[in-house]
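call fold(seq) -> tokens
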Amino acid sequence: MREHIGVGIIGFGTVGAGTARILLENRDLMYERTGFYLDLKKIADLDLETDRGIKVDPAILTRDANALIDDPEVDIVVELIGGYEPAATFIKEALNRGKYVVTANKALLATRGWELLEQAEASGTSIAFEASVGGGIPVLRSVREGLCANHIQSIHGILNGTANYILTRMSDEGMDFQEVLKEAQQKGYAEADPSFDVDGIDTAHKIAILCSMAFGVRVPFEAIPIRGIREIRQLDVLYARELGLVIKLLAVGRWQEGKLEIRVHPVMIPESHLLAKVKGVYNAVHVIGDFVGSTLYYGKGAGMLPTGSAVVSDIVSIARQLARGAAYTIPPLGYPLSSFQDAAIRDTREVKGAYYLRMMTRDQPGVLSRISGILGENGISLASVIQKGKGEEPVAIVMVTHETTWRQIEDALKTIDQLDVVMEPTLALHIELDLK
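ret:
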């Protein structure tokens, strides 16, 4: 059995520094657990001057990622620069040289992952990516290995800490979206350009990976309906509370009748559900299997050390096999690649459920009856109506529908939002009750 496995890290940013710190500080602990040492042989980054808060031997630092990939002492290449290029090129080069790859790059995996997985299989190596979904939460390993005896029936996930932090602060502190977003940026929870987080794109990357693994299908990223949280106002948070509900940016994956229902959007969920209790920058994934039933995975979904912990778990998993002279043979997505087919995506406009509708209208007689009439013409019946603030304009009218489809809601709102008494586009949120 080999006593040393060499590791090289491309990207010495937040996660790269966290990974390096864990490898260095817990080196002896991992030896006790595995019987071999993980040797950090090289770190490649264009910026070698910034203080990362950890001490590393300057001799292992390089600006040349290809030199790291070519180093015969590096058995496992860890890609942590993110983005599409040059990350994809570095991963392909490593695979071509027979190296194993660990990455946290959810955007690349969700959009171009298939070509990388096929190349890994052809090269006789593999790619591991636990850190790409849920940060430090071992949800991918749980789905791939722990739940492998189950048909996965559904996945509901809070998968973006920035969006969840914003919605939590809006709910708990009565703050408006823009105010919380600015605070999140100041605290380092949100990027200067927060689009990937607040517009749902980051969440969509993660649910695409999760659904491929859970259901054994290729998920075309461009087919995922995505909505973010920019439309949510403080009054929506208050109305949700009045209805016994909480607003969350939710990723949903469900397998029904041979089709994949996949979507990312802000929804209302019952405040009694465990997902409603997930606050701040924390993530949670609720997975239902046919035999195991309901399971929940909770923890920090991002950050230097939680994500670094997940990266190192992949390194250890691969290294355990290499140390024994064996190939790492666990399929990255839990299924042989040959068994995958493109997913038939269910039209989410046909998904049934109750809806929250918030309209900002003029304070005039007959407004409510006109709107109700249009909803009725589209086959939508109402469970409740709330109207407050009479005498001031605009007036908020909130309606909760009985079960209907998004297609019916869309068709009705096309007409309602053209009324001269409706002052801005109506906000419609799905009320997600089928959480088990």
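The two ends are 47 Å apart (CA to CA).
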